[in-house]
């Protein structure tokens, strides 16, 4: 866009000179008067020595004078810094000092309150002399690349950061919104946002370029639903822009009749329950999205009553949305990634923060023209088949639960669809043991103490249909309303902490321990999971249980009872009641078979998945959650986990043992085999052995498995040379990986370092180490045997096809990154399936969903 915002506004103020520009509780000013008065103040500022690029703070209450002052600052060539005078004085002081503001414009009410190096000017003091200044536009040319304003937003360091917006950024927004959703000279737009909230810019400038009228609400009315509703009706407001919290406040104040008002909802996710109510009460509802850094709005969508999903729509004019992965690679439609925004709305960057600007405003990867940047929002989303964008929350609201990466926005989206829930926020909080647990805060007006347990159970049941167990909140806290920030956004930091005692402790369906064994098991579960009470029929996986806590529980049970149970027993005995019963049977029904039923029911060809290093078949539970309900899935765990049976040290013997177990379970076949990491090589050998038995192998799926082609069977010099070469390549490639994906690489290297430390402890004192780590001791011993088996295994060709599932993010060196070494061994070819995530996290959300879908498709095609 050419020219400046002030040029555009001045043209329209002249065009609609006799029309009312602003009304404020009985006061009003015409467009012509606003133009003259703002020009006089602008000319005063120029005479005062203000030059293009200077910064001027504006700290005024909401008034006609405030709008005129802001316009005058921009007309003088300076950029304004909007300062809400109700904000803490220390914060305002920081903004003025950090920005190097030349002037601070205030009125008598705030005289001397905001200490800074800026020269303070009282508007009352200069009012008499303004009449002597020209009412014409100042004689200066403002470029479209000059700054329009600097708005301070919260910073991760605890200090606010100044976002710099240029004139062309603001012009692009105004021109686009003027066309769609649209505004006309007949509109009356309510302005109720604090000037320190970026959306205030739209409320003030959009009417001024359109001949529409601004109806200002004071701060008191903006926070009072009854008064605000009265103002909307009496002032015949036709256009409102506000956060969801404001519209909820209006509904609570008794808004029940349909009004001829169009609504822009922004600032936070619009939840379906609220949207449904608003569509019946207004003339049109738009869900608008955009960060401060890209000039207020970047996308939008009109919402209709029949819409089942609330998206943030499509980009406004001259704006592009990219969904990128951690390496800035463009993701296909449907894949979840970070939202990047490019185009004419992208601001200049952060004031006085070159490093942060470079990080958050990288070069546009698509439009590589000189100077083109994009903004890294920190928001997570995806592009739907319709072309619309689904917002899934903040990347910094992405948390780790039981080792899985969880998008809190995805849980919130599902909860918001549930009956009775008006609002919801999900957070991760640490319990007394340092474990992360999900807490869902909900506003549900019709739910009280008498029926809360029933409703919470209903909500849990409903979201279990679409989310894996680890994404089901452990706690639900029902609030009358959510605490809000000054910008009317939900204040997550002010949410109450959950009580240690679970709601079900006193609920009517809570079942307490009935035997000494149940009490013992309950005490151990509560201690390990950090809960004060667990019902005897609560599911281990649904109340926060995961693979590591399972090891701790089984180790403590063995210490207390002398009885050793396999971790896999938690699949079938996942409650305190059933696990206690298993303990009381004196081991008669306890099986240490390698075959573990993960989901045994279904009519399709069973899938048998071999463990990787670490021997953890519980990993595959998350994958099973997203696969067809008719797909049977079994895990294969190592022999020797009971501490009695001797682990196998030949890969052929390990494979033969697993083949024996699956053929006893499924004598006639066919078979679908899979293996994770090292388990892929075992699955490969199993497939060969099954073929030798004339059994049909439908699928051989290898999950990020690497074919090691230099076994101990090779001559020592070759092994030594190959080992040295690989070691050198690994070191060199590590630098490349750190440059491309520092977080993923660091995480992988940390895991490997911890394993090396464990190995060192084992070597130094194997007896003591085994006593200290319990089940980890058996697992470590078996891992050593597996490594030995792998080193002595000689790969020979397989007369079949391999389906190779590769992790998209590489965290270690491979000399054959395309086929991972398998091409020469699969006589019927290798089909490549790229799956999201890195090697250790391909089973973690959100990767597990896509992984499961690709795997299920592979299985279905083989049927």
Describe the protein in words.
This protein is elongated. Strands 2-1-10-9-11-12-13-14-15 form a nine-stranded mixed β-sheet, with helices on both faces. Strands 26-28-27-29-30-31-32 form a seven-stranded mixed β-sheet, with helices on both faces. It has three domains: 1-212, ANL, N-terminal domain (Rossmann fold); 223-350 and 367-401, ANL, N-terminal domain (Rossmann fold); 593-863, Alpha/Beta hydrolase fold, catalytic domain (Rossmann fold, 3-Layer(aba) Sandwich), CATH 3.40.50. The chain is built from 26 helices and 32 strands. The protein has 863 residues and is α/β, with parallel strands linked by helices. Helix 15 crosses helix 18 (576-584).
Topology, please?
Elements: H1 5-15, E1 20-24, E2 27-30, H2 31-47, E3 55-58, H3 64-75, E4 79-82, H4 89-99, E5 103-106, E6 119-122, H5 123-130, E7 147-153, E8 161-166, H6 167-182, E9 188-191, H7 200-208, E10 213-216, H8 219-222, H9 225-234, E11 239-242, H10 244-252, E12 262-265, H11 272-281, E13 284-289, E14 299-303, E15 314-315, E16 319-324, E17 337-343, E18 349-350, H12 354-360, E19 374-383, E20 389-394, E21 398-401, E22 404-407, H13 408-415, E23 423-430, E24 436-443, H14 452-464, E25 475-479, H15 516-529, H16 547-561, H17 569-572, H18 576-584, E26 595-599, E27 607-610, H19 620-625, E28 633-636, H20 651-665, E29 671-676, H21 678-692, E30 697-703, H22 716-740, H23 742-764, H24 766-773, H25 775-791, E31 802-809, E32 830-838, H26 847-862
Parallel strand pairs: 1-10, 3-4, 3-5, 5-6, 9-10, 9-11, 11-12, 12-13, 24-25, 27-28, 27-29, 29-30, 30-31, 31-32
Antiparallel strand pairs: 1-2, 7-8, 8-18, 13-14, 14-15, 16-17, 17-19, 19-20, 21-22, 23-24, 26-28
Helix pairs in contact: 1-2, 2-3, 9-10, 15-16, 15-18, 20-21, 22-23, 23-24, 24-25
């Amino acid at each position: 866009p050419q020219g400046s915002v002030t040029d555009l506004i001045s043209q329209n103020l002249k065009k609609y000179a006799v029309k009312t520009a602003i009304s404020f509780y009985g006061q009003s000013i015409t467009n012509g008067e606003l133009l003259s008065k703002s020009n006089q103040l602008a000319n005063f500022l120029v005479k005062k020595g203000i030059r293009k690029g200077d910064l001027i703070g504006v700290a005024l209450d909401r008034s006609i004078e405030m709008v005129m002052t802001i316009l005058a600052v921009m007309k003088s060539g300076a950029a304004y810094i909007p300062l809400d005078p109700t904000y803490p004085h220390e914060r305002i002081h920081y903004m003025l000092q950090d920005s190097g503001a030349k002037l601070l414009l205030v009125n008598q009410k705030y005289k001397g309150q905001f200490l800074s190096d800026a020269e303070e000017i009282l508007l009352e003091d200069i009012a008499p002399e303004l009449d002597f200044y020209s009412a014409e536009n100042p004689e200066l040319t403002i470029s479209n690349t000059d700054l329009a304003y600097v708005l301070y937003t919260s910073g991760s360091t605890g200090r606010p950061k100044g976002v710099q917006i240029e004139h062309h950024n603001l012009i692009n927004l105004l021109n686009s919104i003027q066309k769609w959703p649209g505004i006309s000279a007949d509109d009356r737009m309510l302005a109720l946002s604090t000037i320190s909230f970026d959306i205030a810019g739209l409320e003030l400038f959009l009417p001024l370029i359109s001949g529409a009228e601004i109806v200002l609400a004071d701060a008191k009315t903006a926070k009072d639903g009854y008064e605000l509703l009265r103002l909307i009706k009496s002032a015949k407001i036709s256009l409102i822009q506000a956060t969801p919290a404001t519209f909820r406040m209006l509904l609570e104040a008794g808004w029940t009749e349909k009004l001829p008002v169009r609504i822009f909802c922004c600032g936070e996710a619009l939840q379906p329950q609220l949207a449904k109510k608003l569509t019946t009460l207004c003339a049109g509802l738009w869900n608008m999205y955009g960060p401060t850094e890209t000039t207020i709005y970047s996308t939008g969508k009109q919402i209709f009553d029949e819409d089942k999903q609330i998206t943030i729509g499509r980009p406004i004019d001259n704006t592009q949305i990219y969904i990128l992965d951690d390496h800035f690679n463009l993701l296909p439609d449907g894949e979840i990634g970070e939202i990047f925004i490019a185009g004419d709305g992208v601001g200049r960057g952060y004031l006085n923060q070159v490093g942060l600007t470079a990080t958050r405003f990288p070069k546009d990867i698509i439009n590589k023209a000189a100077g083109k940047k994009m903004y890294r929002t920190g928001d997570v989303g995806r592009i739907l088949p319709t072309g619309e964008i689904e917002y899934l929350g903040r990347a910094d609201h992405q948390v780790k639960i039981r080792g899985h990466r969880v998008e809190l926005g995805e849980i919130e989206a599902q909860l918001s669809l549930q009956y009775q829930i008006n609002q919801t926020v999900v957070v991760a909080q640490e319990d007394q043991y340092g474990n992360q647990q999900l807490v869902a805060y909900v506003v549900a007006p019709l739910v009280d103490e008498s029926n809360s347990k029933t409703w919470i159970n209903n909500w849990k049941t409903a979201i279990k249909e679409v989310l894996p167990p680890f994404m089901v909140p452990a706690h639900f806290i029902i609030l009358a309303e959510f605490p809000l920030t000054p910008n009317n956004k939900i204040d997550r930091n002010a949410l109450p902490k959950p009580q240690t005692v679970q709601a079900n402790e006193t609920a009517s369906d809570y079942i307490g321990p009935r035997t000494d064994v149940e009490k013992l098991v309950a005490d151990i579960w509560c201690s390990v999971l950090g809960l004060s009470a667990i019902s005897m029929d609560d599911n281990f996986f649904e109340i926060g249980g995961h693979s590591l806590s399972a090891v701790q529980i089984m180790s403590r049970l063995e210490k207390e009872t002398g009885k050793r149970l396999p971790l896999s027993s938690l699949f079938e005995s996942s409650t305190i009641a059933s696990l206690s019963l298993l303990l009381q049977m004196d081991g008669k029904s306890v099986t240490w078979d390698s075959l573990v039923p993960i989901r045994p029911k279904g009519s399709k060809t069973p899938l048998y998945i071999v463990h990787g290093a670490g021997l953890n078949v519980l990993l595959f539970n998350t994958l099973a959650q997203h696969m067809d309900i008719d797909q049977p899935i079994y895990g294969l765990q190592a022999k020797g986990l009971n501490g009695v049976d001797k682990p196998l040290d030949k890969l052929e013997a390990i494979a033969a043992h697993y083949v024996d177990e699956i053929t006893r379970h499924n004598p006639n076949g066919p078979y679908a085999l899979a293996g994770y990491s090292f388990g892929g090589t075992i699955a490969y050998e199993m497939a060969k052995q099954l073929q030798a038995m004339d059994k049909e192998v439908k699928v051989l799926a290898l999950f990020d498995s690497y074919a090691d082609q230099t076994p101990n069977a090779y001559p020592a010099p070759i092994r030594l040379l190959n080992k040295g070469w690989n070691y050198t390549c690994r070191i060199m490639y590590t630098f490349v990986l750190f440059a491309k994906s520092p977080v993923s690489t660091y995480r992988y290297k940390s895991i490997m370092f911890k394993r090396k430390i464990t190995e060192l402890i084992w070597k130094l004192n194997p007896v003591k180490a085994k006593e200290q780590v319990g089940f980890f001791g058996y697992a470590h011993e078996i891992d050593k045997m597996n490594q030995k088996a792998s080193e002595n295994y000689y790969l020979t060709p397989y007369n079949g096809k391999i389906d190779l599932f590769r992790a998209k993010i590489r965290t270690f060196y491979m000399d054959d990154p395309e086929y991972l070494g398998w091409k020469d061994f699969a006589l019927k070819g290798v089909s490549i399936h790229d799956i999201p995530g890195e090697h250790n996290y391909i089973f973690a959300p959100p990767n597990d969903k896509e992984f499961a879908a690709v795997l299920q498709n592979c299985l279905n095609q083989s049927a």
